[in-house]
Every structure is written in structure tokens, then in C-alpha cells.
Amino acid sequence: MLTNRYRRIPCGDIIVQRDHRQRTNLDLTDLIPSIRARGVIQPIVVTEDLVLICGERRLAASMMLGLPDIPARFANELDPIELQIIELEENLKRKDLSWEDQTRAIVRIHDLYHKLDPDWTQKQTADSLGLATSTVSMMIGVGTAALAGNERVLKATNWRQAHNTLAREAQRKNDTILADLTESITRPAGSVAPAPVESIITGDFTQWAASYDGPLFNFIHCDFPFGINLHDSDQGNSDSYGAYADDPNVYWELLECLASNEDRLLSSSAHLMFWFSMKYYCETREFFSHRMPEWTLEDFPLIWMKSDNKGILPDPKRGPRRIYETCFIASRGDRLIIRAVSNAYAAPTGAKSHQSEKPEPVLRHFMQMFVDEHSRVLDPTAGSGSALRAAESLGASFVFGLEKNLEFADNARTQLRHFRALRAASK
User: In 3D, which of 345, 343, 355, 274 has the Cα closest to residue 305?
Assistant: First the structure.
């Protein structure tokens, strides 16, 4: 409570000037049980002439319950902090108040009450506002994050969505900590090699994976050759970008390498993005089901629609041009996403330095579901490095990729250094 300086005034003596009140329909559903059980905890505020300034819901609930009087404070007895509280509480009644301002106001109200009484609780703030304690607790959390400038929270359309965002953040952080703790127990200090210094190395994933003994990754982006013999196709532009083996054996060998080394590479709490050809949709799903059963694979893939209408045309006389690419997503350890986005994204192919390069805007759109400051990202066939650049732009704590083609790897390293320099200059 603010102070003990209040008087009990008969409810019928208090004047409510309806023309000046902002609310005509009062919802007392949540307040009546509280007042019936505990009485009016927070006094209403009136003028010397007993005109109500704030506390209309408390007064109406008391009258409905047949209470003879109600604790009241006179406006001229309030100190500056109490006046701020009244102003903020009245401001909360505005119908046009945004959820951001609403949650910030509740944080401020609670802080002011706490200044007056160090033992003040969120439950008391809830009672003073006529709200459920759980609601006030969630709104204080959201308001605190909004005041701190949490960008993901500020992108929400309402405070409950913002609360869910915070809850997912907390869960992801806890999952990461728990997975790291588990790793430290199963892989004692000294048995784990330090993280690689270079972000992109020249190397073959099928040879590198079996000997890796560094920190585990909790997000992996796989853009393996699709196994559709693109290198033999005139439409693959191998002369422009450089050919690489794209036969089915390569595809399944890379998948088998991933499955055989998942525990060596990936945390018990992790996400996966896996680009594939629809030609192998059923076979790829079956592979994950049998060889990587701990992973929950989404039925509906992500889709990149190439808005510039570029794509393979297998038979111009009998079928359409294929202008979209598909990507499975999967989770391990029920790792939560950061935020939901649409599972389809339209963007042009753009300038490419690699035959199967995915544009950064496409990758950022999808990866914002999975990548944040708690993410350690692996790309086993990095190509141009666009996935690693996208991950860093989303705040990933660590990124690492392999590319077996020396020229591609050099180019990817150069682009990553340039990307980092631009980011540093913009800060």
C-alpha cells in the first residue's frame, strides 16, 4: 500500500461524474472475487468534495458486494510519487493506448509502488490495477524487455505475442545452457578442442566430420548437391560457376556422413535446415526417419520461389520450368523457434558466385526462426558462404563452414571478411 493515511468513506457519499469518466462499461469479473476475499487493498482517490478521481472499478465492485464503506485517500494528501502512480493508472484506461505503452506504464507503476514500499509485490500491483497477478507478471516482463529495446519483442503485434517471444528466448537459452552442461559432463575439459579460428576452411565434410572434436553446434544449414546430375546439364551453367559432382551417390554419401556423425557435431538441442530436390522428397524423409530418428522433421518444407522466373526446364515440350527450391526443417530435443515466419519466400536469384547459391535475403527470412545470439552455426558445404553471412547478421555467436572447392572457399572467405567490415563500419 502507498501509506496508512486514509479514511473510510461511505460508498454512497462518493460522487462519480459520469460525463468526465473515460469508461462507461466496467468489467468487474476479475475484481469482485479479490475484494470479496481480501477487501479493497488499494484506497481510491477523491477530492475534498468526495468527487472520485480514480478507483471507479473498486468503488463499483464494493457497492455491488454491499460493502458499507471503502478506504479513500484525498488528493491533497498525496506525495509526488503517489501522484505519478495515479496519473499512470488513469492513463492505462485509454482505449487508444498501444500495448507497448501499456506494458511500460505497468512497469513504471510497479517500480513506483516499490519505491514507496520495498516489500511491495507484483500481486499487490495486480490488485491495485484490478488485473490478474499472472497477467501483470507477464506484462511487467514484456514491458521491461520493451524498455530495454528488445527488437524481437518490439516486432510483436500485441503483448501476449511479445510474452511468447520472451518465453521462447528463455527456453532456448536454458536449452543451450543445459546442452552445454551435458557436453561438459560427457566431454570433460581438455577433451574438447577449441573452436576453429578460421570461419570457413577448405575441406571435405565427409573426411572432416569423423575427426571433429570441437564445441557442438546447435544449428546446421545443409545445402548438399541435390543428386540430380546438374553438373551434366546445359542449364547448370557449369562453365560460368565451375562444375562440382552432383550425382546421387554424392548426395547420399553426404547424408550418411551427417547421420553417422550427428552426435559428434550437433548439440542435443538443435535445429536443422536441409535443402533438397523434390525428386527425393520421400526418400529423404525416410532417411531421416530411419537414420536420424531423434529429429522431428516438419511435413511441410520451406519454399524459395524464384521471382525472376529462373530455373531448370527439363523438357520444354512436356513440362514446366522449375522455379522453386525446397528445404526441410527439423528440431532435436524439442528446441523452440524464435518466431514464426511464412514458409514461402519470393526473391530473385540475384548475382551468384556459386552454382547453387541461396540469396542472403532468402536465408535470413527463414533462419530468423532459428538463429539468434545463442546459436552456433555449422554449414558443411558452405559454397559462397551466404548462409554464414545471414547467420551472423542475425546475431549468431559463432559460425563455421567447410567448402571443398579451393576457389569457392577463398571467395567465401573474402566475402565474409567484406561483410564483417561493412557491419563494423555501420556501428
Answer: 345
pTM for the full predicted model: 0.71
| Domain tally, the chain | 2
Q: Which of 350, 353, 369, 371 is nearest to 361 (CA)?
A: 350
Do residues 85 and 92 touch, judged by C-beta distance below 8 A? no
Q: Is residue 173 part of a domain?
A: no
Q: Which one is predicted more confidently, 422 or 344? A: 344
Could you please report the per-residue DSSP string of 245-313? --SHHHHHHHHHHHHHTHHHHEEEEEEEEEEE-GGGHHHHHHHHHHH-TTEEE-SSPEEEEETT---B-
Alpha carbon distances (Å) from 1 to 115, 132, 226, 329: 11, 17, 67, 52
First to last CA, the chain: 46
Picking from 161, 179, 206, the residue at the C-terminal end of a domain is 161
* Residue 1 included in any domain: no
pLDDT of res. 18: 65
Q: Is 2 a member of any domain?
A: no
State the DSSP string of 402-415.
Answer: EESSHHHHHHHHHH
CB hemisphere CA count around 194 (13 angstroms): 4
List, as one string, the DSSP characters of 211-243.
G--SPPEEEEEE----SS-GGG-GGG-HHHH--
Same domain, 19 and 139: yes
Give the SS3 label for residue 318. Answer: coil
List the single range of 4-13, 184-193, 247-256, 415-424 with lowest mean pLDDT.
Answer: 184-193
Coil, helix or strand for 346?
A: strand
Task: Taking the CA atoms of 193, 200, 248 and 207 in sequence, report the sign of the dihedral they define.
Answer: negative
Beta carbons within 8 Å of 367's beta carbon, 6+ residues apart = 219, 221, 273, 387, 390, 391, 394
Q: At what angle do helices 133-147 and 159-186 cross, to 10 degrees?
A: 80
472475487: which residue's cell?
Answer: 33
Claim to verify: residue 76 and residue 17 sit in the same structural domain:
yes
Domain around 258? 193-426
Contact predicate 359/349, CB 8 Å: yes
Listed residues 161, 182, 215: the one ending a domain = 161
Which CA distances in Å does 213 have to 187, 208, 216, 217?
Answer: 9, 10, 8, 11
Facing residues of 266 across strands? Answer: 217
* Whether 196 contacts 214, CB under 8 Å: yes
